[in-house]
Amino acid sequence: MAHNASSFTPKTRLRGVVFDMDGTLTVPVIDFGAMYNAVLGEKEYRRVKAESPSGIDILHHIENWSPDKQQKAYEIILDYERQGLERLQIMPGAAELCGLLDSKKIRRGLITRNVKEAVDLFHVRFGMSFFPALSREFRPYKPDPAPLLHICSTWNVQPSEVMMVGDSLKDDVACGKQAGAFTCLLDEKGRYGSSDFAKSDLQPDFKVASLSEVYSLLEEKFDLMP
Questions:
Q1: pLDDT of residue 132
Q2: What would be one Pfam family of this protein (predicted)?
């Protein structure tokens, strides 16, 4: 059956995908509530949590602390992160999704607020490589768009030709939106609803419950061209 040429809508070209790591490429293993409580103290944690319903940005929160207090906070955070490394697991669907990108020669990068040690272990343990792979040693970190814009510049592509995939509205979606990229929110457990998007003014372009859905989304909605 012939199709009317005027009804054909070409797919948008996508040349690269950038992923968050914790909770996106890897199964969430860090108890962030316990970590924030350990850093802030119970009373301050309750106060900050009440003021930040969309989530606490602990790295930004401690930026203006005294050097000694800040150092202690980083040590607590790093201890929780290292405990998480021992339980590191690949997210279901990650290998298949990366296989699709590789088959289409689509670039894949990584941006995390975790440390470089975690990124290096992830690469070694799961035999996957992401380039560039930016950890929190790259400043400024998410939700600032700088790391995503740096990756686009390294790839020599426009942000509008890239998708940011992550499980955080305030970090990953905010970073992607500010950079001018497509955004895909991975929400495995249905944490986010329309009210969350309205409050933060951060409506992702796509919302999925698994990386397998990202696989289908890329095939259906985009022209994957390097």
A1: 98
A2: Hydrolase
